[in-house]
């Protein structure tokens, strides 16, 4: 028997036989539902035979036959009612398990479970729910009207990458029909949150209304995406509205998975637990740094990939610099608990960073992943991987802890046909076109291109996507634009100095300015001024407005 769990209480399977029932009972199942009509196949046992075996095994059996490919709303409602009535756990079966999985998906939607969760659970069990995505998004019911909207170009995501590519497109072709899909009211300049946590920026300065940033000429569809249907050139919004497109750009950013660390959501913003990865928590980081006079400060970094790989240690350096200035650095035990095996992924910048690590007396605890936290007890637990590959649990007390959560692609992308096996938007790393679906492009943090996930990367990617999309539409005759993997990470090693890391694919150094002006491998006052004064201005006034200063795309030879 190939039994596949969909939830803690419901599993599905292909056709079972009477002789299987005793094993199912021994495995703990208390009820069986048959969703296959009798006589559908020549080798199929009848329901009465299965029901008789169920009686002997003292488990319940129910018959809800459904015609293959014709699961109705009424079928799903009756299946949901059966699940409510029957003792748990329940096994439902049909010829392959697909009908049973579909019935479960629609019943789960009717009870309020969200589409990405349902699709992910079914996908894990080996069943594709793409064909009923619209019904799942509509609460498990067949839509009577989709409210279909169509645009020439649809961009999913109103973050840095999404707005930048919309502006780049309209700068090249002002009459282009472009729509941006995003439910958020506020757009955040996330690179500024490190500076907020270091007491440099006012947090309010890092936020603007989304309405004020949508480029002139673009439409704003204020809604969340529930599913992609690339075969129909369509995407499904929450509430089952459907948007169709000629070209699609996917730039939804990352999901911060706070819940992946046991105990973390309950204690964030309290008990000395903070993170610069959230707008509302970055000010608490600065509050904790100023208040700490002695004790232990932990700074964590989860497994890659994450947005701005240098941000976890930026927070640490700025905190240590403040403690040095306050004369208390010697009384504070600082630990950098990094799930990786190196301080920074591009070796050219490590010597400069190590000078600060030594200067501040920071303990580097490599290959340690935060797994659990107890805020009131001021205790965190890590899993450490040893040189022999064996793991051990490490318990650490803290007075403050700066936590960076694990990060994934958003659920609606991760379970979609656009994702690779790991759940990331599957693009060609040079052209940023989707590898399998023509007319679809991706950029920003959710892509699987092996570049650093930074706003600087999105600034370079936006013109490339705009150029290649318009070329594919026939609006441009030039060769493809190509992306070299450029990303930038201004590492704030002290207040007033930055190690300006700029690099591309394979760790190749890609400085924007001549070495005599800024040598990115050394701490620089000028790089600090660039981070503090110029980069925010470039973000708001250039990148998000289609002005490609220092970002003009390179064309293929």
UniProtKB/TrEMBL annotation:
Q: By what name is this protein known?
A: TIGR01244 family phosphatase
Highest taxon above the source species: Bacteria
The residues covered by the Beta-lactamase hydrolase-like protein phosphatase-like domain are 2-109
Q: Which GO terms describe its biological process?
A: sulfide oxidation, using sulfide:quinone oxidoreductase
Matching entries from NCBIfam families are given as: TIGR01244 family sulfur transferase
What keywords tag this UniProt record?
FAD, Flavoprotein, Oxidoreductase, Quinone, Transit peptide
Which cofactors, by name? FAD
Q: Which GO terms describe its molecular function?
A: FAD binding; hydrolase activity; quinone binding; sulfide:quinone oxidoreductase activity
What Pfam families does the entry give? Answer: BLH_phosphatase (PF04273), Pyr_redox_2 (PF07992)
In this chain the FAD/NAD(P)-binding domain maps to 152-267
InterPro entries registered for this protein in UniProt: BLH_phosphatase-like, FAD/NAD-bd_sf, FAD/NAD-binding_dom, Prot-tyrosine_phosphatase-like, Sulphide_quinone_reductase
What is the scientific name of the source organism? Roseicella aquatilis
């Amino acid at each position: 028997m190939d039994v596949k769990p969909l939830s803690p209480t419901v599993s599905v399977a292909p056709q079972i036989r009477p002789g299987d029932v005793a094993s199912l009972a021994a495995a703990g199942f208390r009820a069986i539902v048959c969703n296959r009509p009798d006589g559908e196949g020549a080798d199929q046992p009848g329901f009465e035979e299965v029901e008789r075996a169920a009686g002997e095994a003292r488990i319940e059996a129910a018959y809800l036959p459904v015609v293959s490919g014709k699961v109705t709303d009424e079928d799903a409602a009756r299946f949901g009612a059966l699940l409510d009535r029957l003792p748990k756990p329940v096994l439902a079966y049909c010829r392959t398990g697909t009908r049973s999985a579909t019935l479960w998906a629609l019943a789960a939607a009717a009870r309020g479970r969200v589409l990405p969760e349902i699709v992910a659970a079914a996908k894990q069990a080996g069943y594709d729910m793409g064909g009923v995505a619209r019904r799942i998004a509509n609460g498990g019911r067949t839509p009577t009207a989709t409210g279909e909207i169509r645009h020439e170009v649809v961009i999913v995501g109103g973050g840095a990458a999404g707005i930048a590519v919309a502006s780049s497109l309209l700068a090249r072709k002002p009459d282009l029909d472009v729509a941006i899909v995003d439910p958020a009211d506020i757009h955040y300049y996330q690179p500024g949150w490190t500076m907020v946590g270091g007491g440099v920026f006012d947090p309010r300065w890092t936020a603007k209304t989304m309405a004020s940033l949508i480029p002139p000429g673009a439409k704003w569809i204020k809604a969340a995406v529930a599913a992609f249907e690339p075969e129909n050139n369509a995407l499904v919004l929450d509430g089952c509205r459907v948007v169709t497109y000629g070209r699609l750009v996917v730039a939804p950013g990352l999901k911060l998975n706070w819940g992946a660390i046991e105990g973390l959501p309950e204690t964030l913003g309290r008990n000395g637990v903070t993170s610069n990865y959230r707008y509302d928590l970055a000010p608490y980081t600065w509050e904790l740094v100023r208040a700490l006079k002695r004790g232990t400060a932990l700074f964590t970094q989860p497994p890659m990939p994450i947005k701005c790989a240098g941000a976890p240690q930026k927070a640490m350096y700025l905190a240590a610099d403040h403690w040095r200035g306050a004369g208390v650095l010697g009384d504070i035990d600082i630990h950098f608990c990094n799930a990786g095996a190196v301080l920074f992924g591009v070796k050219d910048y490590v010597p400069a960073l190590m000078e600060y690590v030594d200067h501040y007396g920071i303990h580097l605890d490599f290959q340690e992943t935060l797994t659990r936290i107890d805020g009131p007890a001021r205790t965190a637990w890590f899993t450490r991987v040893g040189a022999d590959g064996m793991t051990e649990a490490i318990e650490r007390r803290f007075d403050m802890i700066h936590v960076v959560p694990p990060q994934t692609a958003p659920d609606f992308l991760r379970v979609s046909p656009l994702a690779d096996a790991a759940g990331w938007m599957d693009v060609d790393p040079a052209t940023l076109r989707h590898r399998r679906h023509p007319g679809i492009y991706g950029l920003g943090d959710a892509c699987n291109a092996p570049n650093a996930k930074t706003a600087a990367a999105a600034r370079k990617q936006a013109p490339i996507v705009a150029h290649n999309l318009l070329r594919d539409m026939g609006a441009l005759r030039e060769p493809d634009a190509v992306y070299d993997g450029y990303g930038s990470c201004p590492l704030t090693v002290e207040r007033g100095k930055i190690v300006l890391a700029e690099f591309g694919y394979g760790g190749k150094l890609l400085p924007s300015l001549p070495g005599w002006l800024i040598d990115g491998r050394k701490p620089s006052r000028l790089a600090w001024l660039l981070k503090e004064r110029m980069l925010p201005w470039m973000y708001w006034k250039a990148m998000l407005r289609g002005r490609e200063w220092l970002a003009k795309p390179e064309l293929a030879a």
